[in-house]
Amino acid sequence: MNTAYETLLVEEREDRVVVTLHRPEARNAISGRMIAELHEVCGLLEADPKLLLLTGHGGVFAGGADIAELLRRGRDEALQGINSRLFERVRRLPMPTLAAVDGWALGGGAELSYACDLRIAGPDAVFGNPEPGLGILAAAGACWRLPELVGESVAKQVLLAGRNLDAAAALAAGLVIDVVPAEKLLDEAHALLDRMARSSATALRLTKLVVDSPGAHPVADDLAQAVLFEGQDKKDRMTRFLEKRSRA
């Protein structure tokens, strides 16, 4: 186990890397530090392509982005695409990626799971994108990845109507490959990776490259987010959120 990370637990195996999001004090919320450390992991996987298993510590995948950090970000930070650039990098990793999700996968946490090639869920998994309630949009891929994954109708239910997809709904929508008991989640995830590892690594890489070849359009996300990040509504909503949480 690599202990050089502050927000991740990273285990490097012969044919895969297992990454556990580890900010238990914040429901594994995606912070700037976690973004930087995930970039480091991407660098490793780009230099030495392996399968990636991504999961969360303590029965939670990731309870969203770090709201306190988002509140401080403005137009310039939105245009940097801090989250979207990372998630696009995850999406374009050479070898297949799998998110093992139990508990909350909200906001940026959901978008990180959408960036993976496959998802497997525990019974308590919940996917959702509540960003408009905070005065912003899901600008790290959900607005175009989620319709590709589950169809426009279900995606709009999540993105516009605030619907959360529990494990059963995620399975019915095709968002996850399977729902398994929580105590078997990682074992089943590794079994899935074992099955892929038995295939030709080169064939997997080329198949993924061809499937993903149409590309994406993160710039549109960043431009829209830049406008929202400058608005008073975003600041007010995030301030109220943080004040409410501090009183809880």
TrEMBL record:
Pfam families membership:
ECH_1 (PF00378)
Q: Which InterPro entries does the entry mention?
A: ClpP/crotonase-like_dom_sf (IPR029045), Enoyl-CoA_hydra/iso (IPR001753)
Output the PANTHER family linked to this UniProt entry.
Answer: ENOYL-COA HYDRATASE, MITOCHONDRIAL, ENOYL-COA HYDRATASE-RELATED
Name the UniProt record assigns to this protein: Enoyl-CoA hydratase/isomerase family protein
Q: Tell me which species this is from.
A: Streptomyces neyagawaensis
